[in-house]
Amino acid sequence: MLKETKSFKLRKKAELLVQNQFKDIIIKDSDVEEVINELHIYQVELEMQNKELRDTQIKLENSRCKYFDLYNLAPVGYFTLDKKGIIIDVNIVGASILDIEINDLYKNAFIKFVDNGDRNKFHHLWQKALKSGDKETSEIKMITNKNRFFYAHLESILSYDEMENRLKIAIFDISKRKIAEDKVKLSLNEKEVLIREIHHRVKNNLQIITSLLHLQEDTVDDDVAVVLREIEGRVKSMAIIHENLYQSPTFNEINLKQYIEKLLYDILYIYGIPKGTIKTNLDIQEIRLNIDTAIPLGLIINELLTNIIKYAFTNFKGTVTIKLISRPDEIELTIADDGIGLPQNIDIENSKTLGLQLVNNLINQLEGKLEIDTHNGTEFKIYFNQLNYKNRI
Predict the structure, then answer these.
(1) pTM for this prediction
(2) Quick one: residue 371, left, alpha or beta (phi over 0 = left, psi -120 to 50 = alpha)?
(3) Helices 291-307 and 222-247: crossing angle, nearest 10°?
(4) Calculated CA dihedral for residues 194, 200, 203, 207, nearest 10 degrees
(5) Over the stretch 98-153, which tens digit does the pLDDT of each residue have?
(6) How far apart are CA 330 and CA 368, in angstroms?
């Protein structure tokens, strides 16, 4: 509408004059020209507004076309379901995934295309999405109109409409990924069985060796029998590690608490210690170590316990103490006895006995530190950290 400018008033007067309502009104030529100019300006403004409207319409049409392309040609199936789970909208890809024409999909229940075994899972997804209003995801097995099964990743979100709430679902066909995952899982399971069998067989072979050594002890003189018994203990310490590994869910770590307890009682058995004569005091934390650390540590424990049992006690009367503590910066292992103690002048780093030489070398292998206290029996303290596990190719 024109504003009430001078030209607007003149135009109104002109209209009244035409209607013979004001015969005495005189309109000057200059006034008419002013009205014409203002109307021309107004016409130009209207044309500009029309051009803007046409441009906006073109943009809206382009956006609609882009939305149509994005919605229908995206590599994702889009579905809109009403509150009863009936399909009320679907894109071209969604219909293609289900091997059906778009028009044939409308008014079908979406759950019709969900495999029977996964319908409870889809129902749970449906209820959760309706309740939370947040995006919910799930992987379900679906069946197409041509009875073809495929695995789908579903993403659903609640859409608020003026009439009712609707559920929008995006479907990604992940069949290739699932098949690849199944192949990987099968391969991993096969490798797991193989690794478990390898550790089991290594353990059995080591046990056979210890049995042969044990049998051989009865056929040789006492000095040789002592040596064979020591070798038997060392082999046994490694056999127990492989036994723990094939029982472990990770195959590269063992429970040190279980390992030390079994190793201690096996050493007592090997040396024929009567039950209850040597007491044990164990304070071992639940610590898991990889095989690179466990094997040298097991051999160290075997050597120290063997020395204690052979030399520390009179008539096998005494107490063996084993403590294992994990600290933020290191692991501390204590093996002690209340027996006669080591000689005061012993130098473990330059010892001539094989057992102590082996202990010293293995501690160096662990990059650890050894402290010995002989004031009340003998106490060995070993400080070390877990070695970095070396990947096997």
Answers:
(1) 0.54
(2) beta
(3) 150
(4) -140
(5) 988 888 888 889 999 999 989 998 888 888 887 877 888 888 999 999 999 999 98
(6) 9
Distance CA 239, CA 242 (A): 5
Indicate the pairing of strand 278-284 with strand 318-326: parallel
* CA–CA distance, 133 with 273 (Å, rounded to integer): 70
Tokens representing 341 are 């103690």
Torsion angle, alpha carbons of 86, 90, 94, 96, to 10: 100
Burial class (CB in 10 A: 0-12, 13-18, 19+), 96: middle
Name the residue type at position 58: I
Distances 331 to 85, 223, 340, 382, 385 between C-alpha atoms, Å: 60, 37, 27, 8, 6
Burial zone of 152 (CB within 10 Å; 0-12 exposed, 13-18 middle, 19+ buried): buried
User: Please, are residues 171 and 152 in contact by the beta-carbon 8 Å criterion?
Assistant: yes
Taking the CA atoms of 192, 195, 198 and 203 in sequence, report the sign of the dihedral they define: negative
- CB-CB contact of 109 with 138 (8 Å): no
Write b or e for each residue in 36-66: b if 16 or more Cβ atoms lie within 10 A of its Cβ, otherwise e: eebeeeeeeeeeeeeeeeeeeeeeeeeeeee
Residue type, 353: T
Closest alpha carbon to 233 in 358, 113, 140, 336:
358
Interatomic CA distance for residues 130 and 83, integer angstroms: 9
Spatial contact of 29 and 38, defined as CB atoms under 8 Å apart: no
The H or E element spanning position 294 is helix 291-307
- Contact (CB, 8 A) for 13 and 27: yes
Structure tokens given for 255: 């429970």
pLDDT digits (tens, 9 = 90+) for 42-90: 777 777 777 777 766 766 665 665 555 555 666 788 888 888 888 888 8
Give CA 93 to chain center in angstroms: 32
Burial group, residue 336, by CB count within 10 angstroms (0-12, 13-18, 19+): buried
Residue 136's identity, in one-letter code, is: E
| Other CB atoms within 10 A of residue 22 CB | 13
